[in-house]
Design goal:
By secondary structure, the chain is mainly alpha-helical. About 90% of the residues lie in helices and about 0% in strands. It has one domain.
């Protein structure tokens, strides 16, 4: 079967369109991949921030407990110390809840 020039041009044009579509698809996939990498970096940043906040909250808890222990060791009224630190613990819990609920998305 002989192929004429018109058929060859048609086949050539079809192949060029396929190649163009393929290149466009590859560019789209590359853009999606870059966007995913960017999103993963943002998620890593959020996880790092959350870990840092947890460290700060834990440090605050240790500080509060140390202060309470020192005040008791200095002979202050146990009931007053307990009342004061119950309020501090409530504030710490409120702070932790506010951080968890209101940390804005990057």
């Amino acid at each position: 079967m002989a192929v004429n020039n018109q058929q060859l041009n048609y086949i050539y044009q079809e192949l060029r369109e396929i190649k163009t579509a393929q290149l466009s698809g590859n560019r789209l996939l590359e853009r999606i991949y870059r966007k995913e990498l960017s999103n993963m970096a943002k998620i890593d940043d959020v996880l790092t921030d959350v870990a840092e906040e947890k460290t700060l909250i834990d440090g605050l808890g240790a500080f509060i407990q140390g202060l309470k222990d020192q005040l008791i060791a200095d002979g202050l009224d146990q009931a007053k110390v307990d009342a004061a630190f119950a309020a501090v613990e409530a504030n710490k819990a409120e702070l932790a809840a506010a951080l968890a609920a209101n940390v804005p998305a990057p």
